[in-house]
Structures are given as C-alpha cells and as structure tokens.
C-alpha cells in the first residue's frame, strides 16, 4: 500500500498527511486517489468528529506534480475538482495545518477546509499562468474567499503571498511559529470533537447550503436543521448533562 498519504484516527480526529516530502508533496494521480479515499472515510466514518490535513516536510503541497501531468495516466481516478467537491460535502469540520509552501491545488485543499492555521514560513500562490496552464481552485475557491480584484492579482501575476498577508486577507485564521501549527490545530480539533457531532454537522450544512439561498430560505433551512437536531437523543443528553452538572456523552443520534 502506498504511503503517499498517511491516514489515522485518534480520539475522534482524523489525521490526513500528504507524504511526498522529497517532491514537496506535489500531487500525482496516486496521491489524489488516496486523498479522495481519506476524505470519503472522514465523511462516512462515525468515529471521526473532525479532520486535520497537513503536509510532511517543508511544504503543505506545491499542487499538481507537473511531471506526472505529462504522463498518459495523469487523468486517472478522481479529478482535482472532485476533491474540492467531496470536501464541500463533508459536514464535519476540516482543519488545514499549513506547515509551509502551499501552491495551486495545495491551496485548493487548504481553501476547501473550514479552519486554516498557517506557519509563519507558509507561502501561498497560484503560479499556473506562469506555466501556461489554468487554475481550478483560483476561480472556484479563491475568488469566493477574497474580493475578486485581490484574487485576480494573485492569479494573473502568479505572485506568492506570505503568511502575514494571508492573515490580513482572512485566507487563514491563525499564523503561528512552525512548531505551534499542529499543536494549535489539535487544540481546536479537540474542542470540536468534544462538542455534539450532530450540532456541528447541522451548523456546517446550514452555513454552506444557505450561502446559495436568499435570506428567507436561508433562515428557513437553518431552522429546519435546528429542529432536526432538537429531536435527537444528543439534544436530550445535552440538557440532562447541563442540569446534572456533568460532561455530556454524545452518541451521534
């Protein structure tokens, strides 16, 4: 079995590690398939409460492996867009622990995550126009996160963005020294995993699906998800635990 992506679950947290450090975690078809498989497990495995995605070595990911792109098998398996879509349909929080260089499809995976923590050494960029190719994550994701004129400057010039500028633009939630990236990601993930999973899922689903609706429909959908959660055993457990002054025990039902 390939070790281009490492996957493990500890205390309700799924750890997804891009593991081609000698290639700066450039994504070839095999890694893309393994990432797809990992995201599917995060989505469907009831043991998983949230996930952390990171890279091994000095890069989060430099995006597509351009050498592999020239191979006849480059388009086998899930596509770049498939990864972004599956991330957007996981109602469990995904945290990107951005340990270093983050380019192109690497940026797409980071932007497809819900919370982003960057190392002070991280750099972001979409250099596709310098290589005569186009971008998926730039038009589809970046331009939805920052104003279009800001996105266009990055996409048209291919210039890199340092971590501090990314923080100013709200591309990331936190910027910390390299040795603090994973501890902070795990701290946040631990807080999430301690909360009611159905509540978290309803909040994320209502937020994402609601962004495509008008206000009236958005409010109605959020109320619908809230009412569904109120009818669960976990909601009853939360009230009982509060009254009994103890920590709740969530069952996910």
Q: What does it look like?
A:
- With 253 residues, the protein is of the alpha/beta class.
- The chain folds into 2 domains: 189 residues, 2-enoyl-CoA Hydratase, Chain A, domain 1 (Alpha-Beta Complex), CATH 3.90.226.10; 48 residues, Lyase 2-enoyl-coa Hydratase, Chain  A, domain 2 (Orthogonal Bundle).
- The chain has 11 helices and 10 strands.
- Strands 1-2-3-5-7-10 form a 6-stranded mixed β-sheet, with helices on both faces.
- Helix 5 runs antiparallel to helix 6.
- The longest helix is centred in the first third of the chain and has 16 residues.
- The protein is globular and about 60 Å long.
- The model has no long low-confidence stretch (mean pLDDT 94).
- Major sheet size, sense and barrel closure: 6 strands, mixed
The name of the CATH architecture of the largest domain is Alpha-Beta Complex
Shape verdict: globular
Helix-strand sequence:
EEHEEHHEEHEEHHEHEHHHH
- Give the termini distance in whole angstroms: 34 Å
CATH topology of the largest domain: 2-enoyl-CoA Hydratase, Chain A, domain 1
Strand content: 15-25%
The CATH first-level class of the largest domain comes to Alpha Beta
What's the helix and strand layout?
Elements: E1 5-10, E2 13-18, H1 29-44, E3 50-55, E4 59-61, H2 66-69, H3 80-88, E5 94-98, E6 101-103, H4 105-111, E7 115-119, E8 123-125, H5 137-145, H6 148-157, E9 161-162, H7 163-168, E10 174-176, H8 181-193, H9 197-210, H10 215-230, H11 233-244
Parallel strand pairs: 2-3, 3-5, 4-6, 5-7, 6-8, 7-10
Antiparallel strand pairs: 1-2, 8-9
Helix pairs in contact: 1-3, 4-5, 5-6, 9-10
